[in-house]
Fold this sequence. Notes:
By secondary structure, the protein is of the alpha/beta class. It has eleven helices and 13 strands. It folds into two domains: 4-29 and 64-152, 3-Layer(aba) Sandwich (Rossmann fold); 155-282, Hypothetical Protein Tm841, Chain: A,domain 3 (2-Layer Sandwich), CATH 3.30.1180.10. It starts with a strand and ends with a strand. The model has no long low-confidence stretch (mean pLDDT 91).
Amino acid sequence: MTKVSIVTDSSAYLPQEFIDRYGIHVVPLNxxxxxxxxxxGVDITADEFYDRLASASELPTTSQTNVFTYEQLxxxxxxxxxxVLVLPISAGLSACLKxxxxxxxxxxxxxxxxxxxxxxxxxxxxxxxxxxxAAEAGANLMECKAAAEAAYEKxxxxxxxxxxxxxxxxxxxxxxxxxxxxxxxxxPVLEIKDGKIELVESVVTTRKAVQRMIDLVERDINIKGYKxxxxxxxxxxxxxxxxxxxxxxxxRFNPVESIFSKxxxxxxTHTGPGTLSIAYMVE
Length: 283
C-alpha cells in the first residue's frame, strides 16, 4: 500500500514528539532580520527569537517557503513511492500555498494533493494530526484529505496579544484597530476566521482577555457538539501565564488530548511577544 506522507510548514509549530511519532514533514518559513534570513525552527528557535525580539531596534519580516524547497521534498517523497498531502498555513496569511501549487506543476500526474487549510499555529496542527492519524490507520491520499477537510469545521482558535503594533506593521490587521488598541491600551481578543485574523472584541486587562477566550472556547464546543475535545495552549515568550492557562482549561474541559506549544518565530513576528492562545478541536 502506498504511504501517505503529510507535509506542513513551521507556522504550525507542532511539538517535535508528534512530528517524530507520525513522520510528518515540516518545511520552514523564513524570518528576515538585520539582513539575515533564518529558517523558522531550524536556524532560530522560538525561545531565541522572543529573547531577541523584546529588545530589538528593528522588527523582523517574514517570507514564505520557496518553490524549490517544495520541489525537493516532493521529489524525495514521490521517488520513495509515497503520495503527498500538503497542509500549509492559511492562504489568507501567507503565499506558501501558492509555492506548493507551483512546485506541484513540475510533477504532472503525481499523487500530490494540496489544500488551503485556512488555519495556522496549533489549530493547523490539529488538522495535520487528523490527517496523519488517518494515514497511520491506512487511509489513502483522498481519504486523508477528506479527513483534514472535515476537521476544519471542528477546529477553532483564539488569541490575545499585548499590542496590535506587530499585526499592524505586518499588514495583518487594519490601521483603525491598531489605533484603538494602542491608544486605549486595551487587550484584544482575536480569532482565525475563514483563514484571516479577525478582532472578536477588546477588554482592559490580560486576565479578562484570557477569561474571555476560555468562555468563547466553551461556547464554541457546545455549539459544535461537545463529546470529546482536544485542547492546545501555546504562547510567544509567555511561559508561566501559558502554563497557568493550560492548567485552567484542562480543569474546565477535561480534554482527551492536551498539547502545550509555542508560537513559531514566523508567526511571532506578526503577533509579538506576550501572545497567549487557545486552539481546540471537538469530536
